[in-house]
Amino acid sequence: ETGVTQSPTHLIKTRGQQVTLRCSSQSGHNTVSWYQQALGQGPQFIFQYYREEENGRGNFPPRFSGLQFPNYSSELNVNALELDDSALYLCASSLGLGQVYNEQFFGPGTRLTVL
Amino acid sequence: DQQVKQNSPSLSVQEGRISILNCDYTNSMFDYFLWYKKYPAEGPTFLISISSIKDKNEDGRFTVFLNKSAKHLSLHIVPSQPGDSAVYFCAASYNNDMRFGAGTRLTVKP
Fold first, then answer.
1. How far is CA A53 from CA A29, A69, B76, in A?
2. Which residues pair with residue A74 across a beta bridge?
């Protein structure tokens, strides 16, 4: 059984640029959630995708957008990067609608640095 | 707004002793609470959870206690082992909204 993988591991961008982060969900999982974890803080929910449709969104601006593909892998896109976007971005996969928390498996994250 | 707070950034205990990690929340609508453990370079891993209809849930060495009147939950690890050294996050959820605390770094010394 393949776990949740994320790419790239690390990324450095400059203000104003755009970035795409990728996540492959655990085999058999059809739901992906994305979180932002700033330094010294807990993960903050960005949004969730279920069967290619957005299903819930946290308090993040529209420049944070996502996609889920037919194989249930997912992308997080951030436009017009700001310094405060520097964080660890985590994706988590699960089976079913909503945040099935104790069945949610996290990837190792992508560390984004915005200069 | 910080609806879930872990006021102790770090905790150090001796191997074999009890570790108690604390978490406070402000939103009385939260109805499900979880603890996650995170090792460096890995994503958080689910550890244990509790529904708001219970006040205690036990799984091996791990026990979570919920005090709804105080809006407080705690995680007890007995006995603590060096492999338990990690960052522990508490999380609270209601209606598809989950909030995490900032985490407590637990160090278990041999």
1. 14, 9, 39
2. A23, A68
Question: Given a cut of 70, is residue B70 above it in pLDDT?
Answer: yes
Distance CA B94, CA B46 (A): 17
Q: Are A43 and B89 a contacting pair at CB < 8 A?
A: yes
3-state secondary structure of A102: helix
- Using a CB-CB cut-off of 8 Å, the residues of chain B touching A102 are 34, 46, 49
Tell me the shortest Cα–Cα distance from A80 to chain B, in angstroms: 24
Which residues are paired to A66 by β-bridges? Answer: A76
pLDDT in tens, A42-79: 999 999 898 899 988 889 999 999 999 998 899 999 99
B4, B29 Cβ separation under 8 angstroms: no
Nearest in space to A49 (alpha carbons), one of A33, A36, A60:
A33
Banded model confidence at residue A95, pLDDT cuts 50, 70, 90: confident
- Range B86-93 average pLDDT: 95
* pLDDT for residue B51: 92
Which of A3, A4, A2, A7 has its CA nearest to residue A76? A7
Is the peptide bond between A43 and the residue preceding it cis, with omega within 30 degrees of 0?
no
